[in-house]
Model the fold of this input.
Amino acid sequence: MIELSHLEFSYGDRRVLSDFSLTLPVQGITALQGPSGCGKTTLLRLLAGLERPQSGTISGIVPGTGAILFQENRLLPWRTVKQHITDVLPRERQDEAARWLELVELEDEVHTLPASLSGGMGRRLALGRCLALGGSVYLLDEPFAGVDPERTRRILTRIRGLGTPVVLTSHQASVLELADRVISLDGPPLHRL
Done:
């Protein structure tokens, strides 16, 4: 279990978490649902170790061992689709690129540059890069923005098959209905409904 206990976190004067506690299982897919700006992204950043709480504790996850997908795709305009995947793979795993591109249904775009991808394709490339990076847990911020529901279903089924725990945020019903559990949140400050 990942345990968040009595977390306090603020950006300057803006309090995002106040005495926030939550237990997350370390198996399956957990979806965090809530309005934009309630603190879901900050929660993922805290789980990833990119931010540190001003007080409280996080246990059950080692900072820096999870792979995080940001809301922005952060693609490099001069790198092809395949290069985005191989860039995060160690030399001995370079031959895995095709596997990750198939998982996110971009196997026919290996030589394509980001400027030629649709919004949904760019999102899937960013997701594939995150999955290829690997880690103890996948922390995915709106992973299927711009991706159609049927494709989302296929890709999320493949992600479940990887056996790595997933914590994701989403507003999409097609994503939430596929999760093993949905945690509804509101804020700020962030709190469970």
In short: The chain has a mean pLDDT of 96. The chain has six helices and nine strands. The beta strands are 2-11, 14-24, 29-33, 55-59, 67-69, 138-141, 166-169, 181-186, 191-192.
